[in-house]
Amino acid sequence: MREPLPHDVPAPPVPESTSRRWRDIALLGGLFVLVIAGLAGLAAATGWEETRAQLMKLGLPQVIALLSLSLVNYVLRGLRWHLFARRLGLDTRLGQNMRHFLGGFAMSVTPGRVGELIRMRWLRRETGWAVERTAPLVLVDRASDLSAMAVLLAASVALSASNVTLGLPVALAALAAGWMATRPKLVAGIATLIYRATGLKPRLMARARAAARSLAAFTTLPVAAGSLALGLIGWAAEGVAFDLLLGWMGADIGLAKALAIFTFATLAGGLTGAPGGVGGAEAAMVALLSLEGVPLEVSLPATAIIRVTTLWFAIGIGLVVFPLAERQSARV
Questions:
Q1: Is the dihedral of CA 277, 302, 168, 186 positive or negative?
Q2: Per the annotation, which location comes first and is thus the protein's main one (predicted)?
Q3: In Å, how far from its chain's centre is CA 319?
Protein backbone atom coordinates (compact mmCIF):
# COMPACT_ATOMS: atom_id res chain seq x y z
CA MET A 1 0.00 0.00 0.00
CA ARG A 2 1.36 3.38 -1.01
CA GLU A 3 2.00 6.11 1.49
CA PRO A 4 -0.74 8.74 1.42
CA LEU A 5 0.20 11.86 -0.43
CA PRO A 6 -0.30 15.27 1.22
CA HIS A 7 -3.31 15.97 -0.92
CA ASP A 8 -4.86 12.63 0.12
CA VAL A 9 -5.02 13.60 3.77
CA PRO A 10 -8.22 15.49 4.61
CA ALA A 11 -7.80 18.81 6.31
CA PRO A 12 -8.68 18.81 10.00
CA PRO A 13 -12.13 20.20 10.67
CA VAL A 14 -12.33 23.77 11.92
CA PRO A 15 -13.29 23.75 15.60
CA GLU A 16 -16.82 24.94 16.17
CA SER A 17 -15.66 27.60 18.64
CA THR A 18 -13.22 29.00 16.08
CA SER A 19 -15.81 29.15 13.30
CA ARG A 20 -18.29 30.76 15.68
CA ARG A 21 -15.75 33.39 16.66
CA TRP A 22 -15.06 34.28 13.03
CA ARG A 23 -18.80 34.47 12.41
CA ASP A 24 -19.20 36.88 15.31
CA ILE A 25 -16.29 39.00 14.07
CA ALA A 26 -17.91 39.11 10.62
CA LEU A 27 -21.18 40.23 12.26
CA LEU A 28 -19.31 42.98 14.11
CA GLY A 29 -17.67 44.18 10.92
CA GLY A 30 -20.91 44.08 8.98
CA LEU A 31 -22.82 46.09 11.58
CA PHE A 32 -20.04 48.64 11.83
CA VAL A 33 -19.90 49.09 8.05
CA LEU A 34 -23.70 49.45 7.81
CA VAL A 35 -23.85 52.14 10.51
CA ILE A 36 -20.92 54.09 9.08
CA ALA A 37 -22.38 53.79 5.59
CA GLY A 38 -25.72 55.14 6.79
CA LEU A 39 -24.14 58.08 8.58
CA ALA A 40 -21.89 58.73 5.59
CA GLY A 41 -24.91 58.82 3.31
CA LEU A 42 -26.57 61.42 5.51
CA ALA A 43 -23.34 63.38 5.66
CA ALA A 44 -23.13 63.38 1.88
CA ALA A 45 -26.67 64.70 1.69
CA THR A 46 -25.83 67.60 4.00
CA GLY A 47 -22.45 68.34 2.45
CA TRP A 48 -19.11 66.62 2.89
CA GLU A 49 -17.18 69.83 3.41
CA GLU A 50 -19.19 70.84 6.48
CA THR A 51 -18.87 67.37 8.01
CA ARG A 52 -15.15 67.24 7.27
CA ALA A 53 -14.66 70.66 8.85
CA GLN A 54 -16.27 69.40 12.07
CA LEU A 55 -14.12 66.28 12.15
CA MET A 56 -10.98 68.32 11.65
CA LYS A 57 -11.71 70.20 14.87
CA LEU A 58 -10.68 67.11 16.81
CA GLY A 59 -7.05 66.30 17.41
CA LEU A 60 -5.27 63.46 19.16
CA PRO A 61 -5.63 65.00 22.66
CA GLN A 62 -9.40 65.23 22.23
CA VAL A 63 -9.66 61.63 21.04
CA ILE A 64 -7.54 60.44 23.97
CA ALA A 65 -9.79 62.37 26.37
CA LEU A 66 -12.91 60.70 24.94
CA LEU A 67 -11.38 57.23 25.16
CA SER A 68 -10.15 57.89 28.70
CA LEU A 69 -13.63 58.82 29.88
CA SER A 70 -14.96 55.61 28.33
CA LEU A 71 -12.26 53.69 30.19
CA VAL A 72 -13.50 55.24 33.43
CA ASN A 73 -16.88 53.67 32.70
CA TYR A 74 -15.45 50.24 31.92
CA VAL A 75 -13.14 50.15 34.94
CA LEU A 76 -15.83 51.23 37.42
CA ARG A 77 -18.34 48.75 36.06
CA GLY A 78 -15.64 46.06 36.08
CA LEU A 79 -15.01 46.86 39.74
CA ARG A 80 -18.75 46.55 40.35
CA TRP A 81 -18.69 43.11 38.67
CA HIS A 82 -15.86 42.11 41.02
CA LEU A 83 -17.81 43.26 44.06
CA PHE A 84 -20.88 41.34 42.88
CA ALA A 85 -18.81 38.19 42.31
CA ARG A 86 -17.34 38.36 45.81
CA ARG A 87 -20.75 39.05 47.29
CA LEU A 88 -22.12 35.97 45.57
CA GLY A 89 -19.38 33.91 47.20
CA LEU A 90 -17.01 33.41 44.28
CA ASP A 91 -13.37 33.17 45.32
CA THR A 92 -12.11 35.10 42.30
CA ARG A 93 -9.43 37.79 42.16
CA LEU A 94 -9.86 41.34 40.90
CA GLY A 95 -7.72 40.74 37.81
CA GLN A 96 -9.63 37.57 37.04
CA ASN A 97 -13.00 39.29 37.28
CA MET A 98 -11.82 42.26 35.21
CA ARG A 99 -10.66 39.81 32.53
CA HIS A 100 -14.08 38.19 32.45
CA PHE A 101 -15.93 41.50 32.39
CA LEU A 102 -13.84 43.17 29.68
CA GLY A 103 -13.63 40.01 27.56
CA GLY A 104 -17.42 39.80 27.52
CA PHE A 105 -17.53 43.12 25.65
CA ALA A 106 -16.49 41.24 22.53
CA MET A 107 -20.02 39.82 22.43
CA SER A 108 -21.83 43.12 23.01
CA VAL A 109 -23.47 43.17 19.60
CA THR A 110 -25.13 39.78 19.84
CA PRO A 111 -28.95 40.08 19.88
CA GLY A 112 -30.01 41.11 23.38
CA ARG A 113 -26.31 40.94 24.31
CA VAL A 114 -26.85 37.30 25.22
CA GLY A 115 -23.34 36.61 23.97
CA GLU A 116 -22.04 38.23 27.14
CA LEU A 117 -23.16 35.07 28.95
CA ILE A 118 -19.74 33.77 27.88
CA ARG A 119 -18.61 35.13 31.27
CA MET A 120 -20.63 32.38 32.94
CA ARG A 121 -18.76 29.75 30.94
CA TRP A 122 -15.41 31.18 32.01
CA LEU A 123 -16.55 31.16 35.63
CA ARG A 124 -17.72 27.55 35.35
CA ARG A 125 -14.35 26.48 33.98
CA GLU A 126 -12.32 28.38 36.55
CA THR A 127 -14.41 27.91 39.70
CA GLY A 128 -16.52 24.84 39.01
CA TRP A 129 -19.71 26.78 39.72
CA ALA A 130 -22.68 25.68 37.63
CA VAL A 131 -24.37 28.19 35.37
CA GLU A 132 -27.45 28.48 37.58
CA ARG A 133 -25.23 29.55 40.49
CA THR A 134 -23.56 32.37 38.52
CA ALA A 135 -26.68 33.45 36.60
CA PRO A 136 -27.66 35.97 39.34
CA LEU A 137 -24.35 37.73 38.78
CA VAL A 138 -25.21 38.47 35.15
CA LEU A 139 -28.78 39.45 36.01
CA VAL A 140 -27.85 41.87 38.79
CA ASP A 141 -25.13 43.45 36.66
CA ARG A 142 -27.63 44.19 33.88
CA ALA A 143 -30.21 45.41 36.40
CA SER A 144 -27.64 47.74 37.98
CA ASP A 145 -26.89 49.29 34.59
CA LEU A 146 -30.59 49.88 33.98
CA SER A 147 -31.06 51.46 37.41
CA ALA A 148 -28.02 53.74 37.10
CA MET A 149 -28.98 54.91 33.62
CA ALA A 150 -32.59 55.45 34.69
CA VAL A 151 -31.54 57.68 37.59
CA LEU A 152 -29.06 59.53 35.39
CA LEU A 153 -31.67 60.09 32.67
CA ALA A 154 -34.34 61.27 35.09
CA ALA A 155 -31.95 63.69 36.82
CA SER A 156 -30.57 65.12 33.58
CA VAL A 157 -34.05 65.56 32.08
CA ALA A 158 -35.22 67.36 35.22
CA LEU A 159 -32.22 69.70 35.12
CA SER A 160 -32.21 70.35 31.38
CA ALA A 161 -35.87 71.30 30.79
CA SER A 162 -35.31 70.37 27.16
CA ASN A 163 -37.00 68.44 24.38
CA VAL A 164 -35.94 65.14 25.96
CA THR A 165 -38.93 65.09 28.33
CA LEU A 166 -40.09 61.91 26.58
CA GLY A 167 -37.13 60.32 28.35
CA LEU A 168 -39.00 60.27 31.66
CA PRO A 169 -41.22 57.27 30.74
CA VAL A 170 -38.12 55.45 29.49
CA ALA A 171 -36.32 56.26 32.74
CA LEU A 172 -39.22 54.96 34.80
CA ALA A 173 -39.45 51.78 32.70
CA ALA A 174 -35.71 51.13 33.04
CA LEU A 175 -35.80 51.77 36.78
CA ALA A 176 -38.78 49.43 37.19
CA ALA A 177 -37.06 46.71 35.15
CA GLY A 178 -33.89 47.07 37.19
CA TRP A 179 -35.82 46.83 40.45
CA MET A 180 -37.90 43.85 39.35
CA ALA A 181 -34.86 41.91 38.12
CA THR A 182 -33.34 41.93 41.62
CA ARG A 183 -36.43 40.84 43.61
CA PRO A 184 -35.89 37.16 44.50
CA LYS A 185 -39.57 36.35 45.15
CA LEU A 186 -40.71 38.15 42.02
CA VAL A 187 -38.14 36.43 39.78
CA ALA A 188 -38.98 33.07 41.32
CA GLY A 189 -42.68 33.73 40.73
CA ILE A 190 -42.05 34.59 37.09
CA ALA A 191 -40.05 31.37 36.72
CA THR A 192 -43.00 29.44 38.16
CA LEU A 193 -45.45 31.08 35.75
CA ILE A 194 -43.17 30.26 32.78
CA TYR A 195 -42.93 26.66 34.00
CA ARG A 196 -46.69 26.31 34.24
CA ALA A 197 -47.27 27.95 30.86
CA THR A 198 -44.60 26.06 28.91
CA GLY A 199 -44.25 22.79 30.79
CA LEU A 200 -40.49 23.00 31.16
CA LYS A 201 -38.65 20.22 32.93
CA PRO A 202 -39.08 20.34 36.73
CA ARG A 203 -35.30 20.13 37.19
CA LEU A 204 -34.79 23.26 35.08
CA MET A 205 -37.54 24.98 37.03
CA ALA A 206 -35.84 24.13 40.33
CA ARG A 207 -32.55 25.55 39.07
CA ALA A 208 -34.24 28.77 38.02
CA ARG A 209 -35.85 29.18 41.44
CA ALA A 210 -32.54 28.47 43.18
CA ALA A 211 -30.85 31.13 41.04
CA ALA A 212 -33.63 33.58 41.92
CA ARG A 213 -33.11 33.00 45.64
CA SER A 214 -29.41 33.87 45.25
CA LEU A 215 -30.44 37.41 44.27
CA ALA A 216 -31.06 38.13 47.95
CA ALA A 217 -27.32 38.61 48.39
CA PHE A 218 -27.51 41.83 46.36
CA THR A 219 -30.58 43.47 47.90
CA THR A 220 -28.93 44.91 51.02
CA LEU A 221 -28.67 48.69 51.19
CA PRO A 222 -24.83 48.91 51.16
CA VAL A 223 -24.56 46.67 48.08
CA ALA A 224 -27.38 48.43 46.22
CA ALA A 225 -26.05 51.91 47.05
CA GLY A 226 -22.46 51.03 46.16
CA SER A 227 -23.39 49.45 42.84
CA LEU A 228 -25.64 52.39 41.97
CA ALA A 229 -22.85 54.88 42.73
CA LEU A 230 -20.34 53.02 40.56
CA GLY A 231 -22.84 52.78 37.70
CA LEU A 232 -23.83 56.43 37.94
CA ILE A 233 -20.23 57.68 37.84
CA GLY A 234 -19.32 55.28 35.04
CA TRP A 235 -22.19 56.15 32.71
CA ALA A 236 -21.95 59.85 33.58
CA ALA A 237 -18.31 59.78 32.42
CA GLU A 238 -19.42 58.81 28.90
CA GLY A 239 -22.14 61.47 29.01
CA VAL A 240 -19.51 64.06 29.93
CA ALA A 241 -17.46 62.87 26.95
CA PHE A 242 -20.46 63.53 24.70
CA ASP A 243 -20.85 67.02 26.17
CA LEU A 244 -17.15 67.79 25.60
CA LEU A 245 -17.37 66.50 22.04
CA LEU A 246 -20.34 68.73 21.22
CA GLY A 247 -18.54 71.71 22.74
CA TRP A 248 -15.43 71.07 20.65
CA MET A 249 -17.63 71.00 17.56
CA GLY A 250 -19.25 74.31 18.42
CA ALA A 251 -22.60 72.90 19.55
CA ASP A 252 -22.56 73.39 23.31
CA ILE A 253 -26.06 72.47 24.50
CA GLY A 254 -25.18 72.16 28.18
CA LEU A 255 -24.07 69.19 30.26
CA ALA A 256 -27.57 68.22 31.45
CA LYS A 257 -28.98 68.08 27.92
CA ALA A 258 -25.96 66.17 26.62
CA LEU A 259 -26.31 63.62 29.42
CA ALA A 260 -30.03 63.28 28.77
CA ILE A 261 -29.58 62.74 25.03
CA PHE A 262 -26.70 60.28 25.41
CA THR A 263 -28.46 58.21 28.09
CA PHE A 264 -31.83 58.22 26.35
CA ALA A 265 -30.29 57.18 23.02
CA THR A 266 -28.35 54.35 24.68
CA LEU A 267 -31.46 53.03 26.43
CA ALA A 268 -33.63 53.50 23.33
CA GLY A 269 -31.12 51.59 21.23
CA GLY A 270 -31.27 48.71 23.67
CA LEU A 271 -35.07 48.66 23.56
CA THR A 272 -35.00 48.06 19.80
CA GLY A 273 -33.48 44.63 20.42
CA ALA A 274 -30.84 45.28 17.77
CA PRO A 275 -27.36 43.96 18.58
CA GLY A 276 -25.69 46.57 20.77
CA GLY A 277 -28.55 48.94 20.01
CA VAL A 278 -26.85 49.62 16.68
CA GLY A 279 -28.97 51.79 14.43
CA GLY A 280 -31.59 52.73 17.00
CA ALA A 281 -29.20 54.57 19.31
CA GLU A 282 -27.66 56.53 16.45
CA ALA A 283 -31.06 57.48 15.03
CA ALA A 284 -32.31 58.64 18.44
CA MET A 285 -29.17 60.67 19.07
CA VAL A 286 -29.30 62.49 15.73
CA ALA A 287 -33.03 63.18 16.11
CA LEU A 288 -32.72 64.58 19.64
CA LEU A 289 -29.76 66.75 18.70
CA SER A 290 -31.80 68.12 15.80
CA LEU A 291 -34.62 69.00 18.21
CA GLU A 292 -32.06 71.02 20.20
CA GLY A 293 -31.15 72.95 17.06
CA VAL A 294 -27.87 71.16 16.32
CA PRO A 295 -27.37 71.05 12.52
CA LEU A 296 -26.86 67.72 10.78
CA GLU A 297 -23.31 68.58 9.77
CA VAL A 298 -22.52 68.57 13.50
CA SER A 299 -24.91 65.93 14.87
CA LEU A 300 -23.86 63.26 12.35
CA PRO A 301 -20.10 63.29 12.99
CA ALA A 302 -20.69 63.80 16.73
CA THR A 303 -22.93 60.72 16.82
CA ALA A 304 -20.45 58.64 14.82
CA ILE A 305 -17.52 59.65 17.00
CA ILE A 306 -19.22 59.11 20.36
CA ARG A 307 -20.43 55.67 19.30
CA VAL A 308 -16.97 54.70 18.09
CA THR A 309 -15.35 55.89 21.31
CA THR A 310 -17.91 54.18 23.56
CA LEU A 311 -19.59 51.07 22.09
CA TRP A 312 -17.01 50.17 19.45
CA PHE A 313 -14.08 51.00 21.72
CA ALA A 314 -15.52 48.57 24.29
CA ILE A 315 -15.91 45.91 21.61
CA GLY A 316 -12.31 46.49 20.53
CA ILE A 317 -11.10 45.98 24.10
CA GLY A 318 -13.25 42.86 24.32
CA LEU A 319 -11.76 41.41 21.15
CA VAL A 320 -8.28 41.89 22.59
CA VAL A 321 -9.12 40.38 26.01
CA PHE A 322 -11.40 37.59 24.74
CA PRO A 323 -8.64 35.20 23.52
CA LEU A 324 -6.75 35.68 26.79
CA ALA A 325 -9.87 34.89 28.81
CA GLU A 326 -10.49 31.78 26.71
CA ARG A 327 -6.91 30.53 27.15
CA GLN A 328 -6.83 31.22 30.88
CA SER A 329 -10.15 29.47 31.51
CA ALA A 330 -9.12 26.45 29.41
CA ARG A 331 -5.96 25.95 31.48
CA VAL A 332 -7.82 25.35 34.71
A1: positive
A2: membrane
A3: 14
